[in-house]
Specification:
cytoplasm; 26% helix; zinc; 8 helices; 23% strand; single chain; binds N-acetyl-L-aspartic acid; binds zinc ion; alpha/beta; 351 residues; 3-stranded antiparallel beta sheet; 9-stranded mixed beta sheet
Length: 351
């Protein structure tokens, strides 16, 4: 991403940092200690999932590598890190999924369903994953899962969070975004995408862990490996693991506020009578993920050359623009809004 946006993001962070209201942070916490740090359990069991979608090859390739190499890159003192291929049958076929999207089936209902002959492969696999890394929502669940994805959209290195109340993952994102030398991925920014929403949230594979973290790096076509994209994903994982190690070792992290993009709406393509797509993503919107979309800006282009405009009343920030995997989900892009995400100060509990 370009300098301009990075500067904008940084100044935005700074403004909100200086406005940080410590009293409101304190009021969120019953457990706050006298020095204003919430104590959290150590994060000891961490899984690295690749191949949740079998054609998103950065994660597939990294997980295969880490499994072979005996994990030197991902080993950290006091941490158990497990690289894991989430959908091996889809990986083998280099397709997103076999029967249904694995990254949508982790509702409690599916996880507890008795298996039958016609149970989709991914639902069976979800139950296996839940028994290895969950059970979802229980004390026995893995502490944290990094779930590695690629997108065909120009989203850069995006971190996906599921909850605005998960101090640990917000602190981790803050560390990855802004810590020395100038942010782990400098000069690139690392947008944080929040999928918390009453209807739009989906039941992800990583949601079996206590702290789910999605890593979404693009643009990369499905079924293709790009060295630049792989390197970005790898850096995020390394810095994420460093953060966990420092936290477990007793480092305290002060309250922080980061900029996030929160999902507000999915937008479908214009469609004709037989539900066929009648317009393409407009060239002015293509590759413009995380850039402001203002009322009146073009979003689609018909075959007759007519621009279809964004008719909303407020500026939004599009993401997953022209994601290949979302044509079947009837989704051309998602609208997000900027939101400040605050976390309490945290440090590891001693008992
Ligand atoms: C392109 C793609 O697969 N994106 C992921 C996003 C996520 O992991 O939350 C998905 O739709 O499951
Ligand atoms: Zn994916």
């Amino acid at each position: 991403m370009e300098e301009e946006q990075r500067d904008a993001n940084n100044s935005w962070d700074l403004i909100h940092f200086s406005l940080l209201d410590v009293a409101s942070i304190e009021s969120r916490s019953g457990e706050m200690t006298s020095s204003h740090f919430a104590e959290e359990a150590p994060v000891r069991r961490v899984a690295l999932f690749g191949g949740t979608h079998g054609n998103e090859l950065s994660g597939v390739f990294l997980v295969k590598h880490w499994q072979q190499e005996g994990e030197p890159e991902i080993r950290r003192p006091g941490l158990q890190t497990k690289p894991f291929m989430a959908n091996p049958r889809a990986v083998e076929k280099c397709c997103r999924y076999i029967d249904c999207d694995l990254n949508r089936v982790f509702e409690k209902e599916n996880l507890g369903k008795p298996l039958a002959e016609n149970t989709p492969y991914e639902v069976q696999r979800a139950q296996e994953i839940n028994s290895i890394f969950g059970p979802k929502g229980s004390r026995d669940a893995y502490d944290l899962i990094f779930d590695l994805h690629n997108t065909t959209a120009n989203m850069g290195s995006t971190l996906i969070l599921e909850s605005s109340r998960d101090d640990f993952t917000i602190q981790m994102c803050s560390y990855i975004k802004i810590f020395p030398p100038q942010g782990a991925l400098a000069p690139e920014v690392c947008p944080v995408f929040l999928i918390e929403h009453p209807h739009l949230k989906y039941a992800t594979t990583r949601s079996v862990a206590k702290h789910p973290v999605g890593v979404e790096v693009g643009p990369q076509p499905h079924g293709v490996l790009r060295a630049d994209i792989l390197e970005k994903m790898r850096k995020i994982v390394r810095h994420g693991l460093d953060f966990i190690r420092m936290f477990n070792a007793g480092q305290a992290f002060p309250p922080c506020t980061i900029e996030a993009y929160k999902i507000v709406e999915k937008v479908d393509y214009p469609r004709g009578k037989n539900n066929e797509i009648t317009a393409l993503i407009h060239p002015d919107l293509q590759d413009q993920d995380w850039r402001p979309l203002h009322p009146g800006d073009p979003i689609f282009l018909t075959m007759e050359g007519e621009a279809i405009l964004y008719e909303g009343e407020t500026t939004v920030y599009p993401a997953f623009v022209n994601e290949a995997a979302y044509y079947e989900k009837q989704q051309a892009f998602v609208k997000t809004v900027k939101e400040a995400l605050s976390a309490r100060g945290i440090r590891v509990s001693q008992n």
